[in-house]
Amino acid sequence: MQAPQSLTVRSVSAFVIAVSPKTNWIVVELALADGPSGWGEATLAGAEEAVLAEIGHAQTLLAGVAFSGPAEVTGRLRMTHASQARMIVMRAVEQAVLDALARRAGVPLAAFLGGPERQAVPVYANINRGIVDRTPAGFAARAREVVTVEGYKAVKIAPFDGLDWKRCDHASGARLLADGIARIVAVREAVGPGVALLVDCHSRLSPVMARTALRALESVALFWFEEPLAEDAFDDHTGRALRSFANDRGIRIAGGEHLAGMTEARDFLARGTCDAILPDLRWTGLRSGLSILELAACSGVEVSLHNPVGPVLDRISVQMAAALPSFLILERQVRESPLFDEIRGGPQTLADGAIPLEAAPGFGAPPDRAVLERCAAQGFQRRASLAGVAGAGGDA
Question: Residue ranges of the Mandelate racemase/muconate lactonizing enzyme C-terminal domain (predicted)?
């Protein structure tokens, strides 16, 4: 019997790419001693130094060591009460190891994960971070561009800038809510009725605010209303009641982007507050993420992926979505920066609003190293907080 190939890590390194005042991408390269490099993404806004320190620590722990398999590699980084930085690096290393092994085997990552179940993955364009003009007209113009120029059939916005139900008085809360509703209506008018419109609330709303918005948007025909309520702020009954209120208007409630493991996912699904779940592979990892999403589908919840970051995790997420038995739609960060397409080697062509699955090994062509090195040499913007940065998500 032929002995299995070894899994010896030669090095773990990182590239930090300054994308915008809102974003730095952290791309991880894991090189095998006897094969190609694999790639992962460890983007964590506001914690870049901590992530880079953990990547340096991973290099110390993994370089030169022969492992029996991917689980042993990530297991060497596992620790009780791991920080967010340690967790996200552990997940990026898992991505990179599996990508490297798939490249060495000459098969797409989706096949390495047990798929593919489909040859194209439906996607939506998250255009929020790329919108500088935060007026309704600015939102509408960007949405119209990605639909007419790039062929997207679904668009997501986060329109409730500056709103936080816990900190706003009644008058300012009502004004900011109305501003967000105006942006949503403007986007619907710009893209027409045939484009799916998704709204991300970033847990900014109270139950009363959420119902007010849903009533005002009945004619807009939203595809989903994402994370209207903070998951830990209200009881299960309140969340289920809001879901029922939305469903009566033909709207899904989506959530679950912060889930990290099976126990959390089991409890989240048991609450019954969401129609669709979109965990983030930076927190779940690939193998655990597959289990979480299959559990959700078996529980009658539609499955998606939270994917608002860079081109590496984007391509990994496409492969993951293709490997799942059931999948609704995949998020893509669109038009925040031309670096997205430069790093991936060119723009992605859509076919009827979906990304065709690549047949190349791993997740496809590796990132353009010359672009990564050029960007890394330029340094990155250190930002401890996104407070006050409209369109960044955590701007309240």
Answer: 136-246
